[in-house]
UniProtKB/TrEMBL annotation:
<keyword id="KW-0534">Nitrate assimilation</keyword>
<feature type="transmembrane region" description="Helical">
    <location>
        <begin position="172"/>
        <end position="195"/>
    </location>
</feature>
<dbReference type="GO" id="GO:0042128">
    <property type="term" value="P:nitrate assimilation"/>
</dbReference>
<keyword id="KW-0472">Membrane</keyword>
<dbReference type="GO" id="GO:0005886">
    <property type="term" value="C:plasma membrane"/>
</dbReference>
<keyword id="KW-1003">Cell membrane</keyword>
<dbReference type="Pfam" id="PF16974">
    <property type="entry name" value="NAR2"/>
</dbReference>
<dbReference type="GO" id="GO:0010167">
    <property type="term" value="P:response to nitrate"/>
</dbReference>
<protein>
    <recommendedName>
        <fullName>High-affinity nitrate transporter</fullName>
    </recommendedName>
</protein>
<dbReference type="InterPro" id="IPR016605">
    <property type="entry name" value="Transptr_NO3_Nar2"/>
</dbReference>
<comment type="similarity">
    <text>Belongs to the NAR2 family.</text>
</comment>
<dbReference type="GO" id="GO:0015112">
    <property type="term" value="F:nitrate transmembrane transporter activity"/>
</dbReference>
<keyword id="KW-0812">Transmembrane</keyword>
<keyword id="KW-1133">Transmembrane helix</keyword>
<feature type="signal peptide">
    <location>
        <begin position="1"/>
        <end position="22"/>
    </location>
</feature>
<comment type="function">
    <text>Involved in nitrate transport.</text>
</comment>
<keyword id="KW-0732">Signal</keyword>
């Protein structure tokens, strides 16, 4: 009986340990802002257009980070993140301390092996919604856990930021087609009534 209880407790503790290990909180990375991240807008300085304009993303390791610490870095992921101004009254973009539950950074823009510095050009994808954004880069260890980060804005996430304008979904070609089909429908309707009336007179 005692052995069974011991096994049950051991399994429970193992599960809790695995859960805790997998739940990385952003607050635990506050002292590990080890990447310097910069973004440059290409094609439009005011508002980037989804599907048209590019962002040049650059990151490098903070020179104060020791080589011993950075030796644990294995992978990086860059994410497009909503600024606070684009999160207001939008629960589906809410910031959570748990990185797994956090909805601030919903769009992956780069994933690859860790390098102490890198440059990547990102074409804003067509499904990115209108909003104000910044970029955050997470660093992962061999266990695929977040161990460090860097972002293109300050801690308050108010500057620097950039704006993206989503595709409206309306195109000139579609508008022309809709007008043509509407006109055709009206003409067809009048033609139908004319033929009906003519057949009625012939009878």
């Amino acid at each position: 009986m005692a052995i069974r209880r011991f096994l049950a407790v051991s399994i429970l503790l193992s599960c809790l340990a695995a859960t805790c290990y997998g739940e990385v909180h952003f607050s635990s990375l506050k002292d590990h802002k080890n990447l310097v991240v910069e973004t440059t807008n290409i094609g439009n300085k005011d508002a980037l257009k989804a599907g048209e304009n590019d962002i040049v993303l650059k990151w490098s390791i903070n020179p104060n980070v020791s080589s011993t610490t950075s030796s644990a870095y294995k992978k990086v992921k860059a994410k497009l993140c909503f600024a606070p101004i684009s999160q207001q009254d939008r629960a589906w973009r809410k910031t959570e301390d748990s990185i797994k539950k956090d909805k601030t950074c919903q769009f992956n823009i780069f994933e690859g092996e860790y390098n102490s510095s890198n440059t990547f050009t990102y074409r804003v994808e067509r499904d990115i919604p209108t909003g104000t954004y910044f970029v955050r880069v997470y660093v992962y260890d061999s266990n695929n856990a977040e161990v460090a980060y860097g972002q293109s804005t300050n801690d308050a996430k108010v500057e620097p930021l950039f704006t993206i304008k989503a595709i409206s979904g309306r195109h000139a070609t579609l508008d022309i087609c809709s007008v043509v089909f509407s006109a055709f429908s009206i003409v067809s309707l009048f033609g139908f009534f004319y033929m009906e009336k003519r057949q009625a007179k012939q009878k």
